[in-house]
């Protein structure tokens, strides 16, 4: 199966979390990706939210690229049957490959790994290394403490006005694809070389 022109990298937990709404959001996002013809790029595992998103996309005939470092193949129970599977040597290689294969990024609820990936891709945007859409799916307010921390950083001037980055915050998985499509339209319409940085 040919990789579609639009692919969203989904950062999310390898666990299910306590709130059933998180797994429901993973299924909803997987369905929405497949219906929109947008490919999934993800961490390659079969467990937790990440496995749920991937299985849903595959069940609907969508394209899934799994990228996993070799030392996590057993721990995260690598998902067989994906459209494209890439086994990397290191976490750094995994993250860079995910970045290269994706035209945008989404974070569902997750743990330290999800937080680290979201923060890193946002830092790259802050440093003008990319302008790919970043969407934070704040299911049932899961990411509220993170958003509060970002606001605190602004108030303490560690995130300065000239260091802003674009991150769209949505409340439900149904809102992810419209947010991505809106941001893509804005990117196409902007003059060459002009950044789209704004406050959250």
Question: Can you summarize this structure?
Answer:
With 200 residues, this protein is α/β, with parallel strands linked by helices. It contains six helices and seven strands, in the order E-H-E-H-E-E-H-E-H-E-H-E-H.
Description of the structure:
This protein has one domain (7-188): Rossmann fold. It is an alpha/beta fold and 200 residues long. It contains six helices and seven strands. The radius of gyration is 16 Å and the shape is globular. The protein has a seven-stranded parallel β-sheet, with helices on both faces. The longest helix is centred in the first third of the chain and has 17 residues, at 20-36. The chain has helices spanning 20-36, 48-59, 91-101, 112-126, 144-155, 176-189, and strands spanning 7-11, 39-42, 64-69, 84-88, 104-107, 134-137, 168-170. Helices cover 40% and strands 16% of the residues.
